[in-house]
Amino acid sequence: MSSFEQLIATHIQAVTGIDPELRPATKPEFGHYQTNVALRLAKTAGKPPREVATELVGQLDLADTCEPPEIAGPGFINLRIKADVLAQAATQVLQAEQAGLPKADQPQVVVIDYSSPNVAKQMHVGHLRSTVIGDCFRRIFLALGHTVIAQNHLGDWGRQFGMLVEQIRYEGLNISTLDLPGAEALYLRANQHLKESAEFAEQARERVVLLQAGDAETKRIWQALIDVSLTGFNATYQRMGILLGNADVAGESSYNDDLPVIAADLEQRGIAQMDAGALVVFVDGDATPAIIRNSQGGYGYTCTDLAAIRRRVNEMHADRLIYVVGTPQAHHFAQLFAVARQAGYLPDEVVTEHAGFGQVLGKDGKRFATREGTAVPLNELLDAAEEHAAPAVALAAIKYADLSSQLQKDYVYDIERMVATTGDTGPYLQYAHARTCAVMRNAVEQGVEYAAVTQVAAPEEQTLALLLSRFGETVSLVAETLQPHRLCGYLFELASAFSSFYENCPILKSEPEIRASRLALTAAVRQVLATGLDLLGITAPERM
Ligand code: ARG
Asked: Which protein residues are within 6 Å of ligand 1, measured from CB?
């Protein structure tokens, strides 16, 4: 749905040749939008602003959408959308599928790399953000008609598996008894063992070589560790209502065969060069080179990510590659994208984006951690949150807090504030939605029917209708900018507007015609809140 604001601005720009810089009106009596374009034109023309405004108003052809424009003060032009146009827009939201979300003109293949925890380690608060934000992107792109390919870039390969496998053998551990917290405890014991015993360290090193050589027994234990970890991750995804599952897993190890191929290709074509025993790529404007293969012959994080790009471009035919990973990895991704472009693995038309996010902080302003100073396991965080509210509400609180501030910013994890049903919180939105449901239930009980929004006379009704008309463009904007907080802000505005409508405009007690229209308006708000919350990955219970 194209917004009224856009339509008006485009028209005025076409007439005047300059951007009208349309602003929302400061008071309801000024209409809906205001522009100072006449004041600016008057300056260059050396004419009185009100005269210019009058002339301009005569040239505007907005009668289909707006009431006759009014000139105010020194030459501001005030615009008011016609009530019947607003009513129609609200009705359209009510009747359209998905509350009137537009389908993309050119559907794309969007690959979203998110969550990506590491095997034999529980997900910690750091993975919370990637998981919640990535899931929101996934829902939004799907709703807009794009093809989404989620990639859980599991950390399932590396030197640590040498010590893990060796420790299992040393302890004679039956792996089938392990769960994910157990595997993490094993990790800690193995690490300790490694520090204490040079002999064990040597065995762990040899075990890495065996793993790389594909030794059957070693691979069996390694696979068992992955299975245990995935079971744990999947349980957390389910608990959190995250769309990820086994089908989305593309672990680092799945690229192993590609790594020597990539190294050889880059070396042969002179893109990579040897530097102090390592194979590296220099990128313009970057002091440190990207390491393709280290001096011990090992391939690392960057080479694996290059292989992932190739698969995503060549096999998945991605138009857009999105990585939901914390801002500390900004340099890695900037370098990775540069190398991939230099190598010709990334055609110009494929867009890459690192949707980096800030940290979760404790109330003390430091990294959110346990009393011992270690990262908080996600499941413990969820357990603790559920002491403050029902699971669905606790989850809404956490997800909304995560999505509603600008991604790059750190935010303070303050569960008491987050679960409050007042203020800019997830539970407040759930509550507003439940209130619309209660109104609709009462209407059904009283046998009151409704079909369309026909009356938008009260300012509260106008504000609601105008907001409803902006839902589609808001969601499209999030898809474009990767800024979920814009959808959160919009839904919060809508919920607040509904609350003042609810307080000031009687619904079921009104005259039949107004009653039906207000019910339809309420139903449209319910639809947008439910759809919008769903796009954030937040449930919308009908009662609270
Ligand atoms: N496993 C990594 C971590 O926990 C995140 C991986 C992000 N994705 C990627 N393609 N590099 O830090």
From this structure: 113, 116, 118, 153, 155, 305, 308, 323, 325
